[in-house]
Amino acid sequence: MQVHSGTIDPGINYMYTQFNGCGLDFVRAARLLDLCSVDVEAGNFDYSILAAASISHILGDDVAMKVSGLVWGKISACANWLKPYYLLLDEDVTMSSYTIQTHR
Fold this sequence. Notes:
Elements: E1 6-8, E2 15-17, H1 23-36, H2 47-59, H3 61-68, H4 72-91
Antiparallel strand pairs: 1-2
């Protein structure tokens, strides 16, 4: 999952990120995506919509729309479908058993 929101410098073909989410928030959003991916119905949604819906549960609807560039009407059905997974994830407050693989 890559999160971005920002402006493109006209002289440079690069988008400067404006997403300042806490690393733990990113891990929770990634964990939510990982959890819901075992459900075959996840295939009913585009990856970008799944990511935005995950972010909406972790950081809020406004942040999800800003970083994804999607309107709430595109995200809402997936966010509603994702809610039981979020509630399950929210019950597990210990995150020490979950690791994210990083590449350098």
